[in-house]
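In the current project phase, we have settled on a layout for protein records. One protein thus recorded is set out beneath this paragraph:
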Amino acid sequence: MVHFADFDARGYRTVDVRTGYGQWVGSYENTVEDVMDIALLDELTVPRWNGLGRVVDLGCGTGRTGAWLRRHGVKHIDGVDLTPEMLARAHARGVHDRLVEADVTKTGLDSGVYDLAIASLIDEHLADLRPFYEEAWRLTTPGGLCSVIAFHPHFIMTSGMPTHFTSEDGEDIAITTHVHLISDHVKAAMSAGWILAEMHERLIDEDWLAVKPQWQRFRNHPISAAFVWRKQTNA
């Protein structure tokens, strides 16, 4: 097993996910760049977004992914997040039908009702990926899909950078970060019954450097990855 502590180059004070995102919420949307996750959604050919009936947005945060889904024709979206402050922002955005405060591995939502379970930039906060993929399996319909935008392990290991934010008093604070290899996603998803339908990796390219020119040393390194999994059934 790979541990983030072996690569940590920042040494920031670290807080748990709920505490961290509760404090980050005010500046979150000014910090997380679309080139990291939304750009990967734009590349996917699976699923056919406007053909989806109901979607569950796991780790929905402020509703950035939900807003993208709405723009691409998804009409019914439920959101799940652990952090009340994030859910309040998502509620104000108004793109979800329902918002639930819960852990993404134990949502309490009904089984087998969603055509797609989607999660963006939450995998690094999960100590174990298997419960997440198992819950996504439980929630989705036969033949349903699971789309995951992940923080690429290469970048975490190369940069030594945890998920972090700057507090109102100027302190850089890390949120609990785990390193999951690409193979960890594959093993966890396959053990839950998923088969891979599509995958992309996002490199730090000119578009990235236009946003963060100070990352020149990371040019052409992968920073995020998109997986689309299809639910395998015995039928």
About this structure: The radius of gyration is 17 Å. The chain is about 30% helix and 25% strand. The helical segments are 17-24, 38-43, 64-71, 84-93, 130-139, 153-159, 182-192, 206-211.
